Amino acid sequence: MQQPQQPAGLQALRDIVLVGGGHTHVGVLKRFAMRPEPGVRLTLICRDTHTPYSGMLPGYVAGHYGYDDVHIDLRRLAEYAGARFFADEAVGIDHDARRVLCRSRPPVPYDWLSINIGSTPRVGTVQGADAHAVPVKPIHRFNDRWLTLLARIEAHPGSTRVAVVGGGAGGVELLLAMQYRLGRELAARGRDPAELHFALFTRGERILPTHNARVRRHFEATLRRRGVAVHAGTEVVAVDKDRLQADDGRWHDADEIVWVTNAGGADWLQDTRLELDDDGFIKVGETLQSLADPRIFAAGDIAHQVDHPREKAGVFAVRQGRPLADNLRAAVTGRPLSPYRPQRDWLALISTGDRHAVASRGGLYLAGDWAWRWKDWIDRRFMARFNDLPPMTQDAMKAPARSRVALDEDESAQAISALAMRCGGCGAKVGATTLSRALSTLEPVAREEVLVGLHAPDDAAVVRVPPGKDMVHTVDFFRAFIDDPYVFGKIAANHALGDIFAMGAEAQTATAVATVPQGLEAKVEDTVFQMMSGAVEVLNDADCALVGGHTGEGSELALGFAVNGLIDSDSTALMTKGGLRPGQVLILTKPIGTGTLFAAHARLAARGRWIDAALASMVQSNRVGAACLHEHGATACTDLTGFGLLGHLVEMTRPSGVDAELDLAALPLLAGAEETVAAGILSSLQPANVRLRRAIRDQAAWVEHPRYPLLFDPQTAGGLLAGVPPERAEACLAALHALGYAHAAIIGRITPAGEALAPITLTTAMPEAT
């Protein structure tokens, strides 16, 4: 079970924000997981959920490892460490307000900040390189580029010329790995590996310039033996389609160009106050603090330790994990920081693509297949530290009763108040000043029917019902199941709006009700701001005006909305649960599986990419999907929520006086849902939903089917389930796919009511998914 973010009764007092999921930060997360710091909240901001380990990347390219072998699951590791995971990308720093500016979410406040984002290719410094070359860095984006390049080469008729620019260990190792993999891929397709022609370009006079002469000679001999053309002392000055130009003016033909050189700091760092070196890397001192802003740390390739400059190598990023974690802990508790002095020499194990490696350290040179096995053992052991997460011991979970975090006088008073016995009733409301600050920058959409709302707050909102319209009312409320309040706000708003759209109505106004854990005013304010920012984005997109609400203290973060909608009084747009007709087909617009996936996430049994896909589905609005279903003749519709697919279908068949046939093989499922269900991981609501199994005919015959449990899986912000005339179903499905509902599917059909009491028949008319 994951480590709780804070011991019971102890609120977040200080925020450490980690930007980037590099090797150093995964070490920081693991150390805080094993020894939490009471009162300290960690937040990881990273665009990618899975971060590759650079030491195993050549082995992955060569085909020796699979994707999960070489990637650390950051979302899962963050959950284990009790850290919040924000899937986004930093684009700036507001030093005065101590906030990280993000690409697609509100700014994230910090008390202490650490940056570990690696380096960025400087392909823009060479004409045409950004358009025609495949950069290796940033490493976390390389997988998609590599798979695309692999597919292009495999499909390329005849010979293929591959150029690698960069003669350091990274460039040589990657070239040999690519050559090994591609040769075997072509051979497996009955093609001649001799169709491949590789060339290495380096502006230095020799390859592997930081390694000893014997290591260099070994790789020079290897490259010759494998027919690689080495162009030393050759600087690439321009890149064009299918060719590159050297500094002597000559053009060299190349169908594919891979860039393993000219990396520097991210461009956005130039607009911060941080002191940077000539390559754009952050200058840091011995404590890994920025020379310009001591509240900001940096590590890994993005950092330049001015007193101890070293080559950009993964070994340094890995070894900085412990000193960075210790200094972050010291900073937040007001203790002195310790200097970190990296070693001068380090062991490099460089592979040749074919399960053979060379050991290099100072003047040391060793080579052989045994060296690759040694490297493989070291790399797998390293990955196991972050992917094979041991259960937390009782001692680790018993945090000290008192936080060591350094607070000022006002903060200490607030912290004591938050721990004291809290009032109920209106005494449990969030303070007016805190609330007004949190909501002051939100801009809910304006509707002319709103006479009194947030623009002129009063005891209640006053909203006009336009002539010829009927009102549609609904309410939804639930506690947070993820640690990102912004994304939670978006999901909560989508979930609440679902009932309005399922009825065929337009959303008009919403009133919010929220509970927020007590704590320092600044932390409470930011939680409300993040959560309501996400919610208002969704409401505004639906042209739904937020007109008021209530925010109170509670033990857990929770959010809900009472939503009003409008529909024409004489409209045929109304889609009710009782509108199913025999002969219709059932269409489901989104995949199912959120209940089991998030139950697994809480147990650290779900892959981060499964949770990413589930969240992406949950934040997708049902608005245009409902309109599409209505346009194609849907007469009945509902949104899938807590009662699961079977429960909501039964709610439709009963008032409609019909039966239904469900095709288990056709059900669209979220990635990972079958795996987590097969592992016996189910939502806590599942047992209540399973009581509806009596609605299934011949139910005992289906119990062992792998998809059977998913019929009862409760959904959050799920898709729409609708009955559509059979002659319009395929056109409806095509339209839904075009609108972005990629997993929309026909999952069954409506039949006349039979004599049996159970209205649902299961089938596997299509071949079962494997």
What's a concise summary of this model?
With 770 residues, this protein is an alpha/beta fold. Helix 1 runs parallel beside helix 4 (74-80) and helix 1 (23-34) crosses helix 10.
Walk me through the structure.
This protein has 770 residues and is of the alpha/beta class. The protein is 32% helix and 23% strand. The strands form eleven sheets. A six-stranded mixed β-sheet has the order 33-35-32-36-34-37, with helices on both faces. A five-stranded parallel β-sheet has the order 5-2-1-9-21, with helices on one face. Helix 1 packs parallel to helix 4. The N terminus and C terminus are likely disordered.
Note the main attributes of this structure.
single chain, 770 residues, alpha/beta, six-stranded mixed beta sheet, five-stranded parallel beta sheet, 37 strands, globular
pLDDT averaged over residues: 90
Order of strands across the main sheet: 33-35-32-36-34-37
Number of helices: 23
Largest sheet: 6 strands, mixed
Helix content: 25-40%
Which structural class matches the secondary elements?
alpha/beta
Large-scale geometry:
globular
- Which blocks of ≥5 consecutive residues have pLDDT under 50? 1-9, 766-770
Number of E-type strands: 37
Gyration radius over CA: 29 Å
% residues in beta strands: 15-25%
What's the oligomerization state?
single chain
Distance between the termini: 30 Å
